[in-house]
Design goal:
It holds the Pfam family Aldedh. The structure is a single chain. By secondary structure, this protein is of the alpha/beta class. The protein has a 7-stranded mixed beta sheet with strand order 16-17-18-14-13-20-21, with helices on both faces. Strands 10-9-8-11-12-23 form a 6-stranded mixed beta sheet, with helices on both faces. Strands 6-7-24 form a 3-stranded antiparallel beta sheet, with no helix packed on it. Helix 2 packs antiparallel against helix 4 and helix 2 crosses helix 6. The N and C termini lie far apart (75 Å). The relative contact order is 0.15.
Length: 503
């Protein structure tokens, strides 16, 4: 680990480097127009790497949200009847515009989310892939002609758009979580009202500007930005307003449970991608160099702030020391702390203060339980005042620590030692969530056995990278319901209607 080149402070002058400054939008987007909150209120957005405010955004409330819902409802009447080929064409234009403007979108994302610039570009490309994918899937929402058991009857199953969807997205992937949801909704014929995280509203608003240029009609996409003060009431409007027929949320399990309870008041369809606590298992026959390299990517991407990050690393006792000896030098070599727009940065700040506080609490309690920090373990000495924390590796880890059962969402990497596979798998599964899991082995029998045994929705075998628009993304247990991406993702925004015809 090292400091990025020059360890300089990157100021908000970086906004002047945008090629297209009209992508930096500070108003909400409702019915195809840029609007202020009815109250006239705004809220500030800060750079987590410097804690410097660099913009203010319209602070919408429940009444503003109702206007957006009404606009989406009106637009739905036309959009649902737009032929699928036309929906596909406009989505494809949106995709092309996102790719054409990916550098500016990545710069905006880095400023508000702290992500290293190269990683931000990767998110923009990843996010755009969902728009491209669902542009193609829009034309493939096939129904069924069911063979009839009755001589003079025929049965047809249609797929129809569910209606207006409320979309609530997190701060860690402010571009991709919107495109993954909105791409599927629009392809299905739904309209949307999006509430982005208050930490990262600018990425959502920039997408609206490009959607408008692509020719997506007014009211089809609406974004209601809001501060933490209004987050609860805006979310409540999206979950309880009867005009909203579907809610999609990515975030913590605790908030997901609250939103699901609210949505039940009108029996809305829901798809929730919630918390994770991913095990990362290294067996004695694994390629240790590959496993160590993949753990760097899997654990420390976005400074550990992803729901599919490795949270608990289990290494077989016979290769434990060798694996640690390979892993720690890679941490030193590949992770360079700094502002995301500084040359050479690969490791940015913790986005929120509460996230940093949770990190430090988890570390303190782990050390009290006997864990040893062999790398990192503190806030680095930087010429900035941002929310940075070193990538941290812990060994001799007890199972009696918070990270054994709680998602840490930070760059803390606890490495557990195991000897018995069945006992280890029991511990790996002994959590309330089940989003992702990873393991490394070259034994084909073990590969199938462990893949089947892990109680998760996504399994990576000999890889720490499972993200793709072509696969269904989602978890089991308290990691949520429904799937996003892939050919299954569009079904979350469609209703099945059965038609019987007698003659």
């Amino acid at each position: 680990m090292s400091l990025a080149k020059n360890n300089k402070i990157v100021s908000t002058d970086e906004l002047s480097k945008l090629k297209d400054k009209s992508l930096f939008c500070s108003k909400a987007f409702v019915n195809g127009k840029w609007v202020d909150a009815a109250s006239g209120k705004t809220f500030k957005v800060s750079d987590p790497a410097t804690l410097e405010d660099f913009g203010s955004v319209a602070d919408m409330d429940a009444s503003d949200t109702r206007k957006a819902i009404d606009a989406a409802c009106k637009a739905f009447q036309t959009w649902k009847d737009t032929i699928t080929k036309e929906r596909a064409q406009v989505l494809r234009k949106w995709y092309n515009l996102i790719i054409d403007n990916k550098d500016d979108l990545a710069r905006i994302l880095t400023l508000e989310g702290g992500k290293a610039y190269a990683e931000a570009v990767a998110e923009i490309e990843y996010g755009a892939s969902f728009i491209e994918w669902f542009a193609e899937e829009a034309k493939r929402t096939y129904g069924d002609f069911v063979p009839s058991p009755i001589k003079n009857s025929r049965f047809i199953v249609w797929k129809q758009p569910i209606g207006v969807a409320g979309i609530v997205t997190p701060y860690n992937f402010p571009n991709a979580m919107i495109t993954r949801k909105v791409g599927a909704a629009l392809a299905a014929g739904c309209t949307v009202v999006v509430r982005p995280a208050h930490e990262t509203p600018y990425s959502a608003l920039a997408l609206c500007e490009l959607a408008q240029r692509a020719g997506i009609p007014p009211g089809v996409i609406n974004v209601v930005s809001c501060s933490s003060e209004h987050t609860s009431e805006v979310g409540g409007e999206l979950t309880q307003n009867p005009t909203i027929r579907k809610v999609s949320f990515t975030g913590s399990t605790s908030v997901g449970k609250m939103l699901m309870e609210q949505a039940s008041s009108t029996m809305k369809k829901v798809s929730f991608e919630l918390g994770g606590n991913a095990p990362f298992i290294v067996f004695d026959d694994a390629d240790l160099q590959t496993a160590a390299e993949q753990l760097i990517e899997c654990k420390f991407r976005h400074s550990g702030q992803t729901c599919v990050c490795a949270n608990r690393v289990y290494v077989h006792e016979t290769v434990y020391d060798e694996f640690v000896d390979k892993f720690v030098p890679l941490v030193k070599q590949k992770l360079h702390i700094g502002h995301g727009l500084d040359e050479g940065t690969t490791f940015g700040p913790i986005i929120t203060e509460r996230g940093l506080e949770k990190l430090e609490d988890h570390l303190k309690r782990s050390k009290e339980a006997g864990a040893k920090v062999i790398f990192g373990g503190k806030r680095p000495s930087l010429k900035v005042t941002g929310q940075f924390f070193e990538p941290t590796v812990l060994v001799d880890v007890s199972y009696d620590i918070p990270m054994s059962c709680e998602e840490t969402f930070s760059p803390l990497c606890p490495i557990y030692k195991f000897s018995d596979t069945q006992e280890m798998l029991k511990k790996a599964n002994d959590v309330t969530v089940g989003l992702a899991g990873y393991f490394f082995s070259r034994d084909i029998g073990r590969i199938f056995q462990v893949a089947e045994a892990l109680e998760v929705g996504l399994v990576g075998i000999n890889t720490g990278d499972i993200d793709s628009e072509i696969i269904p993304f989602g978890g089991v247990k308290e990691s949520g319901v429904g799937r996003e991406g892939s050919r299954y993702g569009i079904d979350e925004y469609l209703n099945l209607k059965t038609v019987k015809i007698d003659f």
